[in-house]
């Protein structure tokens, strides 16, 4: 191929262009390698995720299993002691969104292992007992130097039959003494139901003319 003097390409310009294209090619090649390596890492992570989830569930169950077993045992004792019925507190444990979730159930041993709703079981009495029990357990796990050993129970006996209140309060009193806790109980039940368990009893009386008054009963 023959070129005239005016159409002959500049050799220096061609070399500069070649150098630019070579640099772009090297950059593209390096970027391609980086993206491939990143993609491989993502694929490895996705392949590992199911196994990691299963391992996390196993570790969570192993770490908290013994604690939950003890919680189940203590709450079952409380339910049986107060209600005088053969019921068992059980937990279902599962990991969702990398978090351990615990669901409480009540098994009625005297009714073919029937599972009861803790919110409505025994007219709500079961919910009262579990609520107090879990609060006491949680409070007992706190660092004593950072938290006051004090708990307020506001009408936590609202769904418990009056005949069961003395048992309920006696158990709370025993646990509080064993854990070194001070507990303030607010209730609408008759005061005589608390006589054997409470150290001090105060009666709050409404008065339209002079306002509410407090009288110490015990």
Automatic annotation (TrEMBL):
Gene3D superfamilies: P-loop containing nucleotide triphosphate hydrolases
Source taxon at top rank: Bacteria
Protein's name according to its UniProt entry: ATPase involved in DNA repair-like protein
Biological source species: Pseudodesulfovibrio aespoeensis (strain ATCC 700646 / DSM 10631 / Aspo-2)
């Amino acid at each position: 191929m023959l070129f005239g003097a005016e159409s002959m390409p500049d050799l220096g310009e061609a070399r500069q262009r070649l150098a630019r294209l070579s640099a772009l090619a090297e950059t593209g090649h390096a970027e391609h390698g980086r993206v491939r390596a990143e993609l491989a890492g993502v694929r490895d992570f996705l392949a590992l995720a199911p196994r990691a989830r299963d391992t996390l569930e196993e570790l969570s169950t192993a770490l908290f299993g013994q604690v939950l077993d003890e919680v189940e045992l203590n709450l079952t004792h409380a339910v049986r002691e107060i209600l005088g019925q053969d019921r068992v507190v059980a937990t279902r444990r599962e990991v969702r969104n990398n978090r351990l979730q615990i669901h409480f159930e009540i098994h009625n041993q005297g009714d073919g292992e029937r599972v009861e709703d803790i919110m409505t079981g025994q007219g709500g009495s079961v919910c009262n007992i579990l609520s107090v029990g879990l609060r006491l357990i949680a409070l007992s796990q706190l660092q004593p130097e950072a938290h006051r050993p004090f708990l307020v129970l506001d009408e936590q006996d609202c769904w418990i039959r009056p005949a069961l209140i003395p048992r309920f309060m006696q158990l709370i009193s025993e646990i509080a003494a064993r854990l070194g806790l001070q507990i303030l109980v607010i209730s609408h039940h008759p005061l005589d139901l608390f006589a054997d368990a409470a150290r001090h009893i105060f009666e709050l009386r409404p008065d339209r003319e002079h306002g509410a008054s407090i009288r110490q009963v015990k």
